[in-house]
Write a structure and sequence with these properties.
The complex is a heterodimer of chains A (107) and B (121).
Chain A (H helix, E strand, L loop, with lengths): L3 E4 L2 E4 L5 E7 L7 E6 L6 E5 L3 E2 L7 E6 L2 E6 L9 E6 L6 E2 L3 E5 L1
Parallel strand pairs in A: 2-11
Antiparallel strand pairs in A: 1-3, 3-8, 4-5, 4-9, 5-6, 7-8, 9-10, 9-11
Chain B lengths: L2 E5 L2 E3 L5 E8 L7 E7 L5 E7 L6 E3 L7 E6 L4 E6 L8 E8 L15 E5 L2
Parallel strand pairs in B: 2-10
Antiparallel strand pairs in B: 1-3, 3-8, 4-5, 4-9, 5-6, 7-8, 9-10
Classes of the chains: A mainly beta (107), B mainly beta (121).
Chain lengths: 107, 121
Amino acid sequence: DIQMTQSPSAMSASVGDRVTITCRASQGISNYLAWFQQKPGKVPKRLIYAASSLQSGVPSRFSGSGSGTEFTLTINSLQPEDFATYYCVQHNSYPRTFGQGTKVEIK
Amino acid sequence: EVQLVDSGGGLVQPGGSLRLSCAASGYTFTNYAMSWVRQAPGKGLEWVSGISGSADSTYYADSVKGRFTISSDSSKNTVYLQMNSLRAEDTALYYCARDKIWGPNDAFDIWGQGTVVTVSS
């Protein structure tokens, strides 16, 4: 099974900050990786697919990069509505595996 | 509009059974796989099970293998998750999510609203 190691697990940031979240796969997954945002009581929302493609309707301050085993989600100029928990998931093979999540809190 | 509606959750005693349903609409059902993902209270997302669009392949997390069975009915555009021998640790919000076996673009793009399963005596 492929393990996804997401870091950090939590972070404090201020409005306007640049935030970087990383997911590392235990083996190569090409670009079969997606990033999600989840707010309390809400359904996860896909932000990035194919590692670096921006989901339609998602603000351009969100970006993804990486291929193989190391992936990054970047939020440029953090906005108040971006405080949430973020997850990665690999869908290169079964079982699918999610990262542990990163909670982005207000500093 | 592409939509998934999941249902069937409820309160069940340990050792009991429950069947979840996920009704899909707005797209060609057999062109996509489907996954079930759960989230225990205050915890992260956990993939539980998946099925191919043609229903000829099924997949399970180790934590549910032998207890849960995924199936689909293409005449009803519906995926099911039969959950047997339920345990307290199966308590969670269960989501169905559209998946794709081949290609990096379409996996987990659409989610149901979730259905709550509570296992307690």
